[in-house]
Amino acid sequence: MEVLDFITLLIIMAAFFTLINVKYLKLPSTIGLMLLALGLSLFIITGEYVFRTLNDLASNLMTEYDFSEVLFQVMLSFLLFAGALELDLRKLGEEKWPILILATVGVLLSTVVAGTAIYYIIPLIGINLDYIYCLLFGALISPTDPIAVLAMIKKTKVSKNLESQIAGESLFNDGVGVVVFLTILAIATKGVENVEILTVVELFAVEVFGGLLLGALLGYAGLHLLKVIDNEHTEIEVLVTLSMVLGGASIAETLHVSGPLAMVVMGLFVGRKGRNENQEDAAGEYVYKFWHLMDEAMNAILFILIGLQIIVINYEVDYFYAAGCAIGVVLLARLIGVSVPISLMRITRHFPKYTIRILTWSGLRGGISVALALSLYENTNFDTRIVDVIITMTYCVVLFSIVVQGLTINKLFAKFNEANMKAPKSRKPH
């Protein structure tokens, strides 16, 4: 199938599934679309002997186009930039330290906890993975997915400070998480004995700080260019922002720095919320409407692709036992990765009641984790069975995260709001 035909098919499915969800299911769009795509996938798989041609066609289609490449090379840059545009810069500044610590220390802590727990637990069900591969799973599953998290936050009512913490952490820990994954992947590929600590630190530093610097430079230049245009030609403003995203992604790939972090920083530069009046009007209203449309459309396509990925996953019963263990392990790792930093920060900073529970349960995983896991198929140094186990665990964690956590988080938000409306206000800095 040609690329244009594939895109056309995805858009048609997105429109059809969205209509069904809005009219009948009435679920949050990301959850509804993914469940419908998952239902279609299960129908194709279970009807294999009756619809052999359909099954072969679907399998060929999903393997013909590399999901990880589609997400990282095309969709992720657009989604992260659009998500960052919606953040309130002033509130983000107030929560900068919790966001920074959770996006770095929290991700690293969660990676180690998840990897170590998996290493000791899954041998009990007859599956053995080297510790480095368990850490690899911990790295790809630890960062929360900003696309899923931002889609969830739009439908909830919560304080602006907590919203900034959740959204800001998910955007930045995504970039950090990808860098941690690539670092551990390099160690696993070359062998622990062939990698020096200094090389690992250098790779991590260049990816992270290089991505932040690139995003700041392009964001600053783009913001001033938008001021020059001064809302007189909205079509040029849209082209400028498109050029920033596409050009920034290409430059990041060429320089081997973190593209996701660059996209987030660029979006913060161009965003209008929490800015002074002069900077707030740098881009016209049409620019934000355009990126909102891009965000919604690509979100729909992304979660349909997640639902369809089940067609190409290799199954063994033991893998699902491991996946069941992984769901509990990932929640525990997230709890530790959130509670340890926040408990330490509470010495000098006030955090409202239920903050740890909210941040733990709202840490949704999504397309980024699936894409990172699927990218392991490209590494010829890894045994196929190892990759299959990691992908099955990842996919089941993502499904649980989006469906169970996504559908129940509103109840926790309601408890948070109720508890903190009754609680006396603290004099400590918020």
Describe the overall structure:
There is one protein chain. The protein has 430 residues and is mainly alpha-helical. The protein is built from 18 helices and no strands. Mean pLDDT is 87; it is low at 426-430. Belongs to the monovalent cation:proton antiporter 1 (CPA1) transporter (TC 2.A.36) family. Residues 13-414 form the Cation/H+ exchanger transmembrane domain. One of its GO terms (biological process) is sodium ion import across plasma membrane. GO terms for molecular function: potassium:proton antiporter activity; sodium:proton antiporter activity.
Quick take:
With 430 residues, the protein is mostly helical. The protein has helices at residues 3-25, 29-46, 52-64, 67-85, 89-94, 96-121, 131-141, 146-153, 160-190, 197-229, 234-255, 259-270, 277-280, 285-308, 317-345, 355-361, 367-374, 384-422.
Topology:
Blueprint: H1 3-25, H2 29-46, H3 52-64, H4 67-85, H5 89-94, H6 96-121, H7 131-141, H8 146-153, H9 160-190, H10 197-229, H11 234-255, H12 259-270, H13 277-280, H14 285-308, H15 317-345, H16 355-361, H17 367-374, H18 384-422
